[in-house]
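Recap from last week: sequence in, structure out.
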Amino acid sequence: MVRAQHLEELEQIGLKKIKDAADSGNLINSRNFAGILYRWKDWENDAAPRKWIESDLLTTDEGLVDLLVGFLSKSYSQALGDRVSRSNWRLDPKVLEPFIEPSAIIDRARRIFQESPEWLKDEKRIAVETFFKEYDLRARGENPDRVMDE
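Predicted C-alpha cells:
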C-alpha cells in the first residue's frame, strides 16, 4: 500500500520525468501523450503544459500537427449484423481545451491541410482533417460523439 507521503514523492518523480522529456523534445513522441499532459497539469498546474505547448509545439506547423496527432484516437464500432467492425478516427476539440483554445488553431490547421505540405501524410493528415471536421460539428452545435457513432 502506498501512503500519501509516498504518493506525493512518486508524483514528483513522475513530474520530473515529464518535464525532462518535454525539455529534451521526447515528450511529443510518448505513446500516451495526451494522458501525460493531463498528469502534468494535475501534478504541477494548468499553466505549465500550456506554456510548453505554446513555446515548443505551436512555433511550427509540424509542432501543431504533432500536438493534434497526440490527441488523435481510434474507436471501433460494430452494428448488429456487421461481420467486421468499423474504425473511426476521433479528435474532439474539447479534449484540447485544458491546454489550448481550439479556436486559436483552427484556421492554421485548415491552412496546413489545404497547403498539404509533403510531410503531411498518414496519421498527421488524418489528425488535421479529423480535428477540423469535429470542430465544425461542435461549431454547428452538434455532438461529435453522436454523429461519429451513427
